[in-house]
Amino acid sequence: MKQTQLFTKTLKEAPADEVAKNAQLLIRGGYIYKNMAGVYTFLPLGLKVIEKINSIIREEMNAVGGQEMYMPSLQDPELWKKSDRWDDDKVDVWFKSELKAGGDIGFAWTHEEVITDIMSKYVSSYKDLPFSAYHIQTKFRNEMRAKSGIMRTREFWMKDLYTFCATEEQHTEIYEAYAVAYKNVFDRIGIGDKTYRTFASGGAFTKFSHEFQTLAEAGEDVVYVNEAKGIAVNEEVLEEADLSELGVTKDELEKRKSIEVGNIFSLGTKFSEAIGLTYKNEAGEDVPVIMGSYGIGPARAMGTVVDLLSDDKGIIWPESVAPYQVHLVGLNLDDYEMKDFADGVYTSLKRRGAEVLYDDRIETRAGEKFADSDLLGMPYRVVVSKKTKEEGQFEVVTRKNGEVRFLSEEELYEDFAPEA
Length: 420
Known about the structure:
single chain, Rossmann fold, five-stranded mixed beta sheet, 12 helices, 29% strand
């Protein structure tokens, strides 16, 4: 992508009403646009990041056996009344409207009822179980106060996956498999070393559920962590009996701020009983299906990456989710020969399969180009200038640590486009 063709522009300052670091940097970099409180447009660069995060999520869910589908946002109130989650005094985040033909309609904030109803038409025998299905879809939550940039919004993407099992043994096995898959997701997007599988109350269905909490000073949540033992708990589990079961004491835990980037929990048979999802066991008896729910917010994960992996110059994208791997910065492009050479390097890198953003702006000064490059945060900056051309080398700067290398053209292609 040539930067002159990218319709977004970088900004020197973020909007005055945006206090979250992730939103400030993403707006300044032209990754997102704030439409209103809690509602953002993901511009071309931002959408590329989200798509990469979604691809990683899909790969890890599919590896466990998750099957992707897509369920609607519009919701029939009658289905939600069965689970007693339609009335506003039970759930206060509903967005609701009325149909022109008459009757109420809701905008989904989660999908347990919907998928349970669907599966009631396809599950009949214990032989149909276990299985799991998920989708990545737009959710709506009528938050009283949208805050924390793209991490708490009123309209957002959510990957929600649901498991369906005949026995507790099946459920435990698949639950643990998805817990590992979640850890893999957070490792791959660059925040795994700060993300803990955090013990929370399991409610009526199991002793513990789990949140995936990323330690961050910008976090809204609080967790209690023993980093040496790799254990984290939330306040609900800060009782000595629970801690003893986990092999840790209260004195060993440190209070830390955190961001919840995902959660997994057992649903028991609450929704299957309410909606009517049963299977026939080997004795021919109708038995409610045991369910689990597993959520990750891709934009919340993206915001967490930005909050954690940035400095005073801008964003530092991990290679796994960066919109482009290489930011090719052309200097002295008012010289026709120089521009022709830089254009050729860009074309060669692209043809060889490299992901390249090419700063081909002619009248922009070098200092401004470098500042924009740091703000945008691609993993590598490759500088093409008269000086480097004369020396037969390219200056390559690694964004995360500032390391500078000088590579020949052949070495450049070997590093960033080895599949030529």
